[in-house]
Design brief:
This protein has 4 helices and 6 strands, in the order H-E-E-E-E-H-E-E-H-H. By secondary structure, it is α+β, with helices and mostly antiparallel strands. The chain folds into 2 domains: about 100 residues, Topoisomerase I, Chain A, domain 4 (Orthogonal Bundle); about 70 residues, Gyrase A, domain 2 (2-Layer Sandwich), CATH 3.30.1360.40. Strands 3-4-6-5 form a 4-stranded antiparallel beta sheet. A two-stranded antiparallel sheet has the order 1-2. Strand 3 and strand 4 form a beta hairpin. Helix 3 runs antiparallel to helix 4. It is elongated and about 70 Å long. The N and C termini lie far apart (about 65 Å).
Length: about 190
């Protein structure tokens, strides 16, 4: 009988931290009233038969504190980029001049701030779900190892506890990231 893959808590931790990295990236894209090129990073453009990040079809710059400029490289992609920005739910409406899209960043009103907080919560929940999937994978490996008599029942319990501790700490980190972003969004 072949031995199963060993249980590696560091691999699980690394995979869970991947979801916090992803969350940091997504939260960075949520705006707080100032223009930042990173705001458009989550935008996916329907280009050449697939979905591509905006930065693979255009250059984003910040000419003024409340203005983003998107220089589309391929003239045939302007409409697709415009549509992607409007559909991105960032509350931005592009003014198009040839291959350049100008995006005025409006002042955030209370209603818009609350919407952004909801989006932040959605991102955080997705990150937590990803962490829980990794936890489930880890617990499944441990269970299989125990069933195959490659680890003892005591080891299984110890590993289960270890996985839960890592999960709890990563979830706590996600909650901290969310709380910080929520405070940043709601600060006028």
């Amino acid at each position: 009988m072949a031995t199963m893959a060993p249980f590696d808590i560091n691999d699980l931790k690394r995979r869970m931290q991947g979801s916090t990295q992803s969350l940091k990236h997504e939260l960075g894209g949520l705006r707080t009233g100032r223009a930042a090129a990173s705001m458009l990073e989550p935008v996916q453009v329907e280009a050449y038969g697939s979905h591509m990040p905006l930065n693979q079809v255009a250059t984003v710059s910040v000419p003024e504190p409340r203005l983003l400029s998107v220089q589309v490289w391929d003239k045939s992609m302007v409409k697709a980029v415009e549509k992607a920005i409007v559909d991105s739910n960032l509350g931005l409406s592009p003014a198009t001049e040839g291959q350049i899209l100008r995006l005025r960043i409006p002042e955030l009103n209370t209603e818009r701030r609350k919407e952004l907080v909801k989006v932040a919560h959605k991102y955080a929940e997705a990150a937590k779900v990803a962490v829980r999937h990794v936890r489930r994978d880890g617990l499944d490996i441990i269970k299989k190892l125990e069933k195959a008599h490659e680890i003892s029942e005591d080891d299984q319990k110890r590993h289960d506890t270890e996985v839960q501790k890592v999960t709890d700490s990563i979830i706590a980190e996600i909650d901290q990231l969310l709380a910080a972003k929520e405070k940043e969004i709601m600060t006028v």
